[in-house]
Amino acid sequence: xxxxxxxxxxxxxxxxxxxxxxxxxxxxxxxxxxxxxxxxxxxxxxxxxxxxxxxxxxxxxxxxxxxxxxxxxxxxxxxxxxxxxxxxxxxxxxxxxxxxxxxxxxxxxxxxxxxxxxxxxxxxxxxxxxxxxxxxxxxxxxxxxxxxxxxxxxxxxxxxxxxxxxxxxxxxxxxxxxxxxxxxxxxxxxxxxxxxxxxxxx
Length: 202
Fold this sequence. Notes:
Layout: H1 8-33, E1 38-39, E2 43-48, H2 52-56, E3 62-72, E4 76-83, H3 84-94, H4 106-131, E5 135-137, E6 141-146, H5 147-158, E7 164-174, E8 177-187, H6 189-198
Antiparallel strand pairs: 1-7, 2-7, 3-4, 3-5, 3-6, 4-8, 7-8
Helix pairs in contact: 1-4
């Protein structure tokens, strides 16, 4: 598939998935911390897997990565990745702390996993509703490492790094805490084609 030839109708549908998913995620997060969450309109793109490290700022950038397996009518992975500054801002937001957190402890990682779970479920449910596909996500696993190492997990599973990736940049704020996270839906190639068929663009 030529990424440059993805038509505008598909991108419009994917943006709608991003909008619905981010709205549901903002509502769930606001309920979780009992505060107002402002969420930006998400940036949605289709990328080749080999280009993902560039989006993250390079393979050497330290990040927090939350990983899910995707199953049901399609197979693949979901990764929610934050740079460490955003990860710290997020746990400050969750625990109602001032912006003093610079390192992540076990309790922080557990909280990040829960937020990743909320975000991934919000977007997957949005995609499921629009495609009528049954989609399930696994229990999250979280890791702090360089971006290249985090991304090696799906790369090894697929045995190649040329598959297509649905990229959703998620930005939200609460008070002075600003969080930018990147969510990547990485379906296996036959599953990606199945999504396109269900969306009526293939």
